[in-house]
Amino acid sequence: MSKRPAYTPALAAEGVQDILRVLEGRWKLAILFQLFGGKVRRFSELERSIDGISQKMLIQQLRQLEKDGVVARIVHHEVPPRVEYHLTQWGQALCPALDALLLWAEAAPAPFAPREAG
């Protein structure tokens, strides 16, 4: 097991900012939450499950997540072609961090408190 680097506050902030850029985008978190738990989803399933996303935007966001190593794409060469998406091991490892952020958000003061599920 390798040792973690010794971070200065500036290096720690820079490292977190760099990784948060991977999650930037209106739809990326919605996509990730659809894939957590080892789920494999077809493109059409993702499109139907995320209200308001356009096909073009879903393609763009999935390509960026794939490029960043968070999502993997499987193309089944059949007629009609079938494309499925799932999280990589690194992408799945993001789940506890996002769960922790959700818990943190639940404890937020009034202006920042998350919306009620409904």
Keywords:
single chain, 118 residues, transcription, Helix-turn-helix transcriptional regulator
Find the count of extended strands (DSSP E, 2+ residues). Answer: 3
| CATH second-level architecture | Orthogonal Bundle
Count of alpha and pi helical runs: 6
Strand content: 5-15%
CATH fold topology: Arc Repressor Mutant, subunit A
Describe it.
The chain is mainly alpha-helical and 118 residues long. The chain has a single domain (11-110), classed as Arc Repressor Mutant, subunit A (Orthogonal Bundle). It is built from six helices and three strands. A three-stranded antiparallel β-sheet has the order 1-3-2. It is globular, with a radius of gyration of 17 Å. It starts with 8 loop residues before the first helix and ends in a 12-residue tail after the last helix. The model has no long low-confidence stretch (mean pLDDT 91). InterPro entries: HTH_HxlR, WH-like_DNA-bd_sf, WH_DNA-bd_sf. It comes from Ancylobacter radicis. Residues 8-113 form the HTH hxlR-type domain. Pfam families: HxlR (PF01638). Keywords: DNA-binding, Transcription, Transcription regulation.
Give a short summary of the structure.
By secondary structure, this protein is mostly helical. The protein has helices spanning 9-23, 28-35, 43-49, 55-67, 89-92, 95-106, and strands at residues 41-42, 71-76, 82-87.
